[in-house]
Amino acid sequence: MKHILKENRPRERLMHSASSLSSAELLAIILKSGTQKENVLEISHKILQKFGSRLQYCSVQELSQEHGIGIAKACQIVALFEFHKRIPKDKRITVNSAKDVAKIFSKKLQNNQKEHFIALYLDVKGNILSEKTVTIGLANASLAHPREVFHGAIKSMAHSVIVIHNHPSGDPTPSEEDLLITEKLEESGEIVGINLIDHVIIGKGSYWSWNENQQKI
User: Which pTM does this prediction carry?
Assistant: First the structure.
């Protein structure tokens, strides 16, 4: 590997972008070193060519018999695949409407004595990437600032945003302040290229949606 410029070596490139590495380069990082005859990248290519997708099912004994792969390296490979199997699979929640949002957040918010203003960050398919509690207390135009809402959207690489807050009174009817906040967020979303697709207000057993009521305002 010494003949490869340091900045082009797999480990250095991994620090900038793991997705840019080939499978052989990723395996080379796991194995760390090669032999006097073959560098670690050459060994990785040979292993992948020989086993392909079957590599994940290989035993320590089988792998340790390959040139450049002793017991220690074979254990590293087997441990990697076993660890991957045990990671809980990501079960993303998808929201397609205000009703979906209300179903998720009503139980969380409808009995709160303070207003919780939450930003929900979605991917292009409407899957929830993350959520952020922007403020707790009175939701007003200064507290629910677009900067706070869209900072999380950019960090999450979100395609769109839904904001949610509760009314402790139980009546989800929007106030003038609620409408002003929504308009400001909608305008800010257009500027940064991340659409605000709804503002859902949670009440006691009911909800109000900006998207569903735009024609009525």
Answer: 0.58
